[in-house]
Amino acid sequence: MRYEGKVYRPPSEARSYVVQATIGCSHNLCTYCDMYRGVDFRERAMEEVLEDVAVAGRLYADVEKVFVADGDALVMGVQRWVTLLGALKDAFPLLRQVGCYATAGNVIAKTDVELTLLREAGLTILYIGPESGDGETLRRLVKGGTFQDHVDAAKKAHAAGLQLSVITLLGAGGVERSREHARETARLVTEMDPEYLASLTLTIIPGTPLQRMVDKGRFELPDVPGLLTELRTIIDEARPSAALFRTNHASNYVPLGGSLPQDRERLVAAIDAALSGEIPLRPESMRGL
Ligand code: SF4
């Protein structure tokens, strides 16, 4: 098994076998992201990918979950996906989940029939990070998709039987659009109605366009109470029908978990306790990207 560059995967895929079918991200423009900066997007040669899967299958026959990297692997064509999913099924007899990162544009670019074909071939979950539901924030982040694009993508994915894990980003609107960011993100979560929901906290990474905006005084990250207030708004106002919620990513100040809608009051109370200093925040030294 061979990997090129840094390989990223969601926290919930920590125990998954990661196969790198693409290198980089075909969008690669989000202002806060340095994951694949300077990396030219490409699909790895299929023979190499299949060799890796075969080797992994011999070494780890008990694999149940596979994550297909890199940053928006859904962009691959359907034939390539079907070949890969078939190889994964052959290599791992206990396989029950295959996931990848996807942009709204990746989903919209595929037909309903194609998405259903991928689900039938074994793809089960898409990780989509709109980060915000606020149109102005999405535009400033150069996210490449609008509120409605993300709603349309979610509807298409669900219609094909795919599960969704939606990622939101506290602080993405800066101080200036903090309130709109939180409220519109809550509304987007309601509309996308994901099975899984995660909130990460924006970290300004040196070398990114966002860092340059900070340097020029054009972007200011909300303080910790401001970030927690955004989280409170998202939890309080979003109405997913049944979502497992997590803030277990290392970037967050308060690790929370629960089911929405059942645990809404408990989660909001925990955020209020953090805001009033009753429960400790994760120290800066323990936070990570
Ligand atoms: S789509 Fe994801 S991986 Fe690609 S640039 Fe944006 S945040 Fe980074």
Chart the SSEs and their pairings.
Layout: E1 17-20, E2 22-23, E3 42-43, H1 46-59, E4 65-69, H2 78-91, E5 97-102, H3 104-108, H4 112-121, E6 125-131, H5 135-141, H6 147-159, E7 163-170, H7 178-192, E8 196-201, H8 209-215, H9 224-237, E9 243-246, E10 257-260, H10 264-275
Parallel strand pairs: 1-4, 4-5, 5-6, 6-7, 7-8, 8-9
Antiparallel strand pairs: 2-3, 9-10
The protein binds iron/sulfur cluster (SF4).
Can you walk me through this structure?
With 289 residues, the chain is of the alpha/beta class. The protein has a single domain, classed as TIM Barrel (Alpha-Beta Barrel), CATH 3.20.20.70. Helix content is 38%, strand content 17%. An 8-stranded mixed sheet has the order 1-4-5-6-7-8-9-10. α2 packs parallel to α4. The radius of gyration is 19 Å and the shape is globular. The structure holds iron/sulfur cluster. Iron/sulfur cluster binds next to loops.
Mean pLDDT: 95
- Name of the CATH class: Alpha Beta
Task: Report the uncertain regions.
Answer: none
User: Strand percentage, roughly?
Assistant: 15-25%
What separation lies between the terminal Cα atoms?
25 Å
The number of helical elements comes to: 10
Shape: globular
Total count of strands: 10
Question: What is the helix fraction of residues, given as a range?
Answer: 25-40%
Hetero groups bound? Answer: iron/sulfur cluster
Order of helices and strands: EEEHEHEHHEHHEHEHHEEH
Strand order of the largest sheet: 1-4-5-6-7-8-9-10
What is the makeup of the main sheet? 8 strands, mixed
The assigned structural class equals: alpha/beta
State the fourth-level CATH superfamily.
Aldolase class I
Task: Specify Rg, calculated over alpha carbons.
Answer: 19 Å
CATH architecture field: Alpha-Beta Barrel
How many distinct domains? 1
What is the fold-level CATH name, i.e. the topology?
TIM Barrel
